[in-house]
Design brief:
The chain is α/β, with parallel strands linked by helices. It contains twelve helices and twelve strands. The protein is elongated and about 75 Å long.
Length: 295
Amino acid sequence: MDTRLLNTFTTLARTGSFTAAAAELHLAQSTVTVHIRALERELGTRLFDRVPTGALLTETGRHLLAEAENVLDAVARLRAGCDSGGAVRGRVVVGTPESLCATRLPGVIAALRTHHPEVDVHLHAAGTAECVDGLRSGRLDLALLLEHEAGFPEVTAEPVTREPLALLCAAGHPLASRTEAVSWEDLATESFFLLEQGCSYSDELERRLLAVPGGRPRLTRFGSVDAARNCVAAGLGLTVLPLTTVEEHLRSGRLARIRGPHLADVPLHLARHRRRWVGPAAEAFTREVRRQMSG
């Protein structure tokens, strides 16, 4: 069986679109159609239902998808074994919270460039739900998850470090100079600039604020650490962010930490698909993450 047909099949199953599959595979859309028809003829069954929105796996297609992925994984392992005496090379696609792109990961990528210059890392900034979906669908090889619990079906995750959180305001904000600890009741009257839905620590803070009887916090959600941080530095409200993302702003005096309720550190997990094979490039990235972040 031509593994190119299986690769087209799994890509179309993941994207649900002939157009998107063709773009990802760098093929003409008509070629994707030819590959799928050839595979259906060879297997003697229909794999997709063609619908106006794209392509949906049939029941048989869903059953065969895992087997096709296993075959492609075996082929990748075979090819990697042939290259075992050479340099580690290849591409690894990593899903990660946006906050880590400018803090934890530059050092990891710099070390990889030194030790494995032929490894190409592609970072995809995304929240936990999108990262988990990317691992399941095969869009991502690995993901970093900022979650207290990382037990997701089909995903295995190992803790690699913990991220301390900081409750923050502008240096000139009244809470910056307050000597006694701020309560949840005090915070529930403030304006907050938090990261978008799906950010575990922002979601937890929102739940705590909204649980205060009579509390009326004003909550604005952003997809960018920079946006939330700059709004707070301008004196517009408060935020909670990983300490690593604001250390420079604290040193420069643009931001100040608030003495408030205890915020538990958030574990950072390195996650992968439970069954899918991880190639040498992804293994090299994994080793560097462990080395850079452990302890």
